[in-house]
């Protein structure tokens, strides 16, 4: 049982990102360099994948990233968390979900995993599309918003939260699932595990060798900062608060 887990290098979630004044992009490429890290949902996907291995349900966990050479650092974090080896599909080109899904499909054709784990969304583009697109390209079932995953009797059981409660789905293999927030709590990466990860193999494949079309198809026309929030109002008493809620906000 082989699990392939897709990990993306994104701007760290603690960084406050600003739009450039002319609206042409985000101010993330200047100096000093903005901190990048493993996409938080992918951290959860790695944890869930490694857990499958640790509980004997899976034999190997392979982490794959599409992007620039620095994405090797991201792969090393996945390896420190317990993945066995890494694959970097190297490109300096700007990538979009469909292009990434096509490159991941090429890796799937090569690696033939039983299971592919992705994050529910990458926090830089918030697209939430790559996993579903990959599943479609693989003609495989997709377990969206996975809150729990279990490999049993040659199938993957995925549960996810719906408005009415919990939905449990049975997916035939190979399958793709997307990690939601509650799926797993990522382990803390220690220095010794990081040192150990340095000895694990990472293969680099140039994206062009796959012959997949990953040219951008979307054009973002403008970035604008969110409107500034209005200052709050201090009230002197509960009675005044109730009065304002009733007469001004009209919510009572
Ligand atoms: P998105 O559709 O961009 O929100 O990404 C959803 C998920 O697809 C991410 O959480 C990753 O697991 C995977 N993914 C997206 N882009 C990449 C990438 N460049 N390299 C590896 N995995 C990616």
TrEMBL record:
<dbReference type="InterPro" id="IPR014729">
    <property type="entry name" value="Rossmann-like_a/b/a_fold"/>
</dbReference>
<feature type="domain" description="Electron transfer flavoprotein alpha/beta-subunit N-terminal">
    <location>
        <begin position="29"/>
        <end position="214"/>
    </location>
</feature>
<dbReference type="InterPro" id="IPR014730">
    <property type="entry name" value="ETF_a/b_N"/>
</dbReference>
<comment type="similarity">
    <text>Belongs to the ETF beta-subunit/FixA family.</text>
</comment>
<keyword id="KW-0813">Transport</keyword>
<protein>
    <recommendedName>
        <fullName>Electron transfer flavoprotein subunit beta</fullName>
    </recommendedName>
</protein>
<keyword id="KW-0249">Electron transport</keyword>
<dbReference type="InterPro" id="IPR012255">
    <property type="entry name" value="ETF_b"/>
</dbReference>
<dbReference type="InterPro" id="IPR033948">
    <property type="entry name" value="ETF_beta_N"/>
</dbReference>
<dbReference type="Pfam" id="PF01012">
    <property type="entry name" value="ETF"/>
</dbReference>
């Amino acid at each position: 049982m082989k699990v392939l887990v897709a990990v993306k290098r994104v701007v760290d979630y603690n960084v406050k990102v600003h739009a450039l004044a002319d609206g042409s992009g985000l101010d993330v490429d200047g100096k000093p360099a903005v901190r990048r890290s493993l996409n938080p949902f992918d951290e959860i996907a790695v944890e869930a994948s490694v857990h499958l291995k640790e509980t004997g349900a899976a034999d190997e966990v392979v982490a794959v990233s599409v992007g620039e050479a620095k994405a090797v650092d991201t792969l090393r974090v996945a390896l420190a968390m317990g993945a066995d080896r890494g694959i970097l599909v190297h490109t300096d080109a700007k990538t979009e979900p469909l292009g990434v899904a096509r490159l991941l499909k090429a890796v799937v054709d090569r690696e033939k995993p039983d299971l592919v784990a992705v994050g529910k969304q990458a926090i830089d583009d918030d697209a939430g599309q790559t996993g579903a697109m990959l599943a479609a390209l693989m003609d495989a079932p997709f377990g969206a918003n996975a809150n729990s995953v279990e490999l049993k009797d040659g199938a993957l059981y995925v549960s996810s939260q719906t408005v009415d409660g919990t939905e449990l789905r049975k997916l035939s293999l190979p399958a793709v699932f997307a990690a939601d927030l509650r799926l797993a709590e990522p382990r803390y990466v220690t220095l010794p595990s990081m040192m150990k990860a340095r000895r694990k193999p990472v293969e680099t494949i140039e994206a062009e060798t796959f012959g997949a079309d990953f040219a951008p198809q979307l054009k973002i026309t403008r970035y604008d900062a969110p409107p500034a929030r209005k200052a709050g109002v201090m009230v002197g008493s509960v009675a005044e608060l109730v009065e304002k809620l009733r007469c001004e906000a009209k919510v009572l």
